[in-house]
Predict the structure of tRNA/rRNA methyltransferase SpoU type domain-containing protein.
Amino acid sequence: MPYSEMQTWSDLTTNPGIMGIFKVPDTESFKAGADTLPLTEPNNLGSILRTCSELDVNNWDDIKETIGLPSNIYIADNTVISSHSNDMENNDISDFLHTIPVLPYYGIDFTTNQHIILIIGGETEGISEESYKLAATLNGVRLNVPLSNNVDSLNTGTALGVIVFEIKRQLLSLRQSNGKK
C-alpha cells in the first residue's frame, strides 16, 4: 500500500509505515486460566490508561484513601540521577528520587505482597511528581528494567509487560512449590 494511502487510514500524525488488520477476539466467551494474574480490569487497562491520559485525569488528592493497606507501591522508572546529572528539570522530583530505592524488577519478591500498586508513567511526560511523592510517603520502590545500547526508556506497554510477567512468574513458582497446579 502506498504511504500516502496509509496516511489516509491512520489517525497518527506521522504514520510509521506499518499497518495491520486484526480480528477482535470474543471476550465474552473468554475463560481465565488458573495462572491468570488478579489484575483489576486487565482487559480494559490500555483503554483506561489512554482515556485517563486524554482527559488529564487528576485524582491524587484522594489516592491515599483509595489504596488498600497493606499495599506495596512500585514505580517503573529507568530515570538515573547522579550528582553530575541534569536529567531532571525539577529539583523537587530529583529530591524524591534520591529517597526512593531503585531495584531491578526481578530483584523484588512479589509473592510476599498482599496488594501491588504499579505506577507506570506516560511515554512523553514520564512519572509525575505526585507519583514520586506518593511512593516516598508510602515507602515505595522504583523498579528498573535494565536496558542496553544507550536506550533510556521502554514503551509503556512493554515496561508493563516485563514487570507484570515477572510478577506472574513468581506467583506461579510459589503456587507450584506449594503443590497447587
Notes: The chain has a mean pLDDT of 76. The two ends are 48 Å apart (CA to CA). The CA atoms of residues 119 and 131 lie 7 Å apart. The chain has one domain: 24-177.
